[in-house]
């Protein structure tokens, strides 16, 4: 996924997420939830004083609070209700959640089949619905019927 030609799609997803961030805004801290190898860290460092990478399965300190949380291609693999509640609790009162994930469309299914990805994913409508139950979705964008990105806040 992280090599050409596939890396293009991951970078596009990151650009979608970043496009939802207020121009010139520097967050005190960002949590890269489900960071994997950290391919987004360099870009996220341009938007925060501190970026904390977190991989699923690591221990979360219950005292952590973040101004922004980024989830790029993560929520489609998690227990949505539990994960979204966790993320909501990790957000500061004015915190913002940024999500970028594949859409479940003919085009995305064809893409994943072409690259040999057989992972089962939650439908994007389910992800959006579950987020909207706990947070206010402020902005929603899509790209080529492959990816969506949202900005959601606690208020």
Strand order of the largest sheet: 2-1-3-4-6-5
Largest sheet report: 6 strands, mixed
Order of helices and strands: HEHEEHEHHEE
Helix- and strand-based class? alpha/beta
Q: Globular, elongated, flat, extended or rod-shaped: what is the shape? A: globular
Overall strand count: 6
Describe what this molecule looks like in 3D:
Helices cover 32% and strands 31% of the residues. By secondary structure, it is an alpha/beta fold. Strand 1, helix 2 and strand 2 form a beta-alpha-beta unit.
Topology:
Blueprint: H1 7-19, E1 27-33, H2 41-45, E2 48-54, E3 66-72, H3 80-90, E4 91-102, H4 106-114, H5 124-134, E5 136-143, E6 147-153
Parallel strand pairs: 1-2, 1-3, 3-4
Antiparallel strand pairs: 4-6, 5-6
Helix pairs in contact: 3-5
Any descriptors?
155 residues, 31% strand, globular, alpha/beta, 6-stranded mixed beta sheet, 32% helix
């Amino acid at each position: 996924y992280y090599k050409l030609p596939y890396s293009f799609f991951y970078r596009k997803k990151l650009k979608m997420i970043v496009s939802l961030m207020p121009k010139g805004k520097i967050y005190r801290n960002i949590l890269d939830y489900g960071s994997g190898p950290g391919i987004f860290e360099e870009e996220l460092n341009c938007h925060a004083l501190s970026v904390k990478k977190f991989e699923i399965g690591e221990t979360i300190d219950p005292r952590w609070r973040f101004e922004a949380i980024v989830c790029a291609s993560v929520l489609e693999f998690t227990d949505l209700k539990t994960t979204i509640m966790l993320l909501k609790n990790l957000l500061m009162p004015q915190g913002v959640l940024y999500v970028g994930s594949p859409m479940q469309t003919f085009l995305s299914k064809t893409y994943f089949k072409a690259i040999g990805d057989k992972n089962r994913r939650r439908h994007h409508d389910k992800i959006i619905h579950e987020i909207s139950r706990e947070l206010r979705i402020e902005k929603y964008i899509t790209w080529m019927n492959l990816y969506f990105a949202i900005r959601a806040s606690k208020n």
